[in-house]
Amino acid sequence: MTPARPAAGTEIVFQWRKWDGSPHWRHECVYLGSDRWGDWVGQPAGWGSERPGRTFTAAAPNVTLVPPSGDYALTVNRDHPKGMRIYIDLAWDVRAVSIDDAADADDVPVLFAGIDMDLDVVRVEGERGTWIDDEDEWEEHRLHYGYPADVQRHLEALAADLEQRVRAQVPPFDDATADVWLDRLAELPLPARRPF
Predict the structure, then answer these.
(1) pLDDT tens digits, one per residue of 136-167
(2) Do 44 and 190 form a contact (C-beta atoms < 8 A)?
(3) Overall average pLDDT of the 66-81 stretch
(4) The CATH number of the domain where 57 resides is what?
(5) How confident is the model at residue 6, as a pLDDT?
(6) Please, are residues 34 and 53 in contact by the beta-carbon 8 Å criterion?
(7) Is residue 24 within a helix (H) or strand (E), and if so which, with residue range?
(8) What DSSP letter does each residue of 70-124 carry, written as one string?
């Protein structure tokens, strides 16, 4: 059964873990809605992300697509100071979780959770363009965590496929698809930010 989704603009947490279950990035977000590509969440500029040993404040608004496949999360930035337009986290089992069963210490629902699988696909405006990132981390972690061979094959092929789709700007990796959701994020009447 698919967990119920909250109303657009509801504050949520997007929680990442590593393969062994240890905590990874935790992002403050709002639920935006869904379309044919999957669910979309947004993070306004100034909202926070943290992982053990590091905190980060979003320098620009961004939206993240969680597709039904659950094997990646596509984040698209607007007006990022370093020109980063797209950042795709390859994942395992990224999905909606029941908001009744999971909440953080401040009772903000953890709506999406998944396993970060190291490999990323990045698109930066300008000379550098599009590339697969963190291949060194992938090599280290696939041995350290003992990723199953079928998982490795799937994600390596997916990274190459996503890189090509991002280069070609095939929807939803084009600008127009995410811009609709970035506009919706900008229109939301969101409360003042509390410390993360």
Answers:
(1) 999 999 999 999 999 999 999 999 999 999 99
(2) yes
(3) 96
(4) 2.40.380.10
(5) 87
(6) no
(7) strand 23-35
(8) -SEEEEEESS-TT-EEEEEEEEEEEEE--TTT-B-TT--BEEEEEEEEEEEEEEE
In the chain, the amino acid numbered 61 is P
- Euclidean distance between the first and the last CA atom of the chain, given in angstroms as a whole number: 32
Segment holding 42, helix H or strand E: strand 38-43
Q: Which domain range does residue 48 map to?
A: 11-181
Residues 6 or more apart from 102 whose CB is under 8 A from it? 15, 109, 110, 113
Rounded CA-CA distance 122/85 in Å is 8
**Residue 67: helix, strand or coil by DSSP?**
coil
Q: Alpha-carbon distance 20 to 148, whole Å?
A: 13
Instruction: Report if residue 141 sits inside a domain.
Output: yes
Give a yes or no: residue 193 inside a domain: no
Model confidence, pTM: 0.92
> Alpha carbon of 107 to those of 24, 48, 100, 102, 129: distances in Å?
19, 16, 10, 9, 40
Count of domains forming the chain: 1
Query: How far is 85 from 121, CA to CA, in rounded Å?
Result: 11
What would the pLDDT profile of 100-114 be if each residue is shown by its tens digit? 544 444 556 778 999
